Every structure is written in C-alpha cells, then in structure tokens.
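Hello Y.,

Per our agreement to keep a running log of every chain we model this quarter, I'm adding this entry. I've kept the format consistent with earlier entries: sequence first, then predicted structure.
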Amino acid sequence: MSSLHSYPSWQIAAALFLLLILAIELGYWIGRRLGKPSEESNSALNTVKGALLALVGLLLGFSYSMASTRFETRKAMLIQEANAIGTAYLRGDLFDEVRREPYRELLRRYTDARLAFFRMTTDAEAVSGALQPSEALQNEIWKLGMEQAHANPLSPNNLLIVDSLNTMIDTGTERVAARQNEVPQPIIVLLIVSTFIAGLFIGHSFGIGKRRSWLATFGFAFLISLVTYIVLDLDQPRRGRIRISQEVMVQLRSSMK
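Predicted structure for the entry above:
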C-alpha cells in the first residue's frame, strides 16, 4: 500500500468525506433492518456511541497537536539555520584576504541551494537529489575553513570559525530531519477507521428512528473531513497549502552583498 503521505491532503479529506457519507448510510440501513432495540440495549448502545465519538475527538485533537508541533518546529529550525549561516558569513572577516571572498561566495551558493531545496514540491526521489548540491557545498566550505585553520594554527580566530561552521552544518541536518518528521501513518489510519465506525453508529441511530437527517450527515462528514484536512496539510510541508515562508532566508541572501 502506498504511503498516505504521498497523496495530497485534499484528496485524503475528500475520500474521507465520501467514506463517512457511505458509513452513515450503511449504518442507517443496518438500523432499519435490525429495528428498535430494547431499552437496556439502547442505553448500552448510547454509551458506546458517546465513548466512540469522544475517542474520535481525542484522536483528532492528538493528531492536530502532533502536526502543529511539527509545523512550529520547522519554523523554528528555519530561523536557527538562517542565524547559523548569517553568523558563519560574518565570521568570514576572520579569514585571510586570499580566502575571504571564495569563502563568502561558497556561502552565497550554499544559501541559494538551501532555498531551492526547501522550495521544492516534487516527488521524494527528486527532493533527495536536490539535497546533494548543498551537501557538496558544505564539504567545500568546511575544507576551506580547515585550510584557514591550518594556515594560521596559532590564531585564536580558528575556534570561532570552526564553531560557526559546525553549528551551520548541524542545524542544516536537523532542519532536513524536521522536514521529514511527519505524523506516523498508523495514527492517520486509526483516525480514519475510528471516524468510519463512528459514522456507522450515527447512521444506526438514524435507522432506529427511521428518519434520516441529511443536515447532520453532511455536517458531521464535512467537519471531520475539514479538521483532518488541516491536520494533514500542516503535516505535508511540500504538498500542503499551508507553507512556511522562506522570507527569512531570502532576506539573509539579500544581505550577502
């Protein structure tokens, strides 16, 4: 089975909406066929329905919390990486004149490569290939930093240069990892299954009363699908419509004159 993360969030939400309509209709048919249960059975069913709806609400809240936390983490990592690259660029003043401009030019190209990578919205294979230029530039920047350190082994500036490069590389790796950290697929599947079963019970209640409420049917299906869409959209940094602005990195690149 293909990963749910490979599908756009609106497609999953639309499929869930139709699935919930089907579940409620199926529950309605079952309720009409089985007829009205006894008073004791009806009381037990109402307890189960209430518990199931509470579980659906809990899963929705839990999923939203996970997705929003990851979204905020990605925003924080963007600022941290911009600060790290900016610090490394400013410490280019500590380089010898012969290495200063090549070092800064590598950082400009590195910033461009990072912007290009995080703006990509293509498939996973293309995204993986787009990461290679920035990784190659990291190696070149580090090599130039080591050349500077070896050329002036007694300089106290070496520690500042190496520290800024270490921070820049580590932050870049952490940001890529944060981009790949999504809500686990089993949680999404559990949410879909739970809402389907809840739809069955809601339809069953309509069937017992032998009266269908289209307003409640479409309202329930729409709201559940909408919340699920928001959760999935927050969790899909490349395919979703809710995106993190790269303006911080754009401003940093503009300052590298």
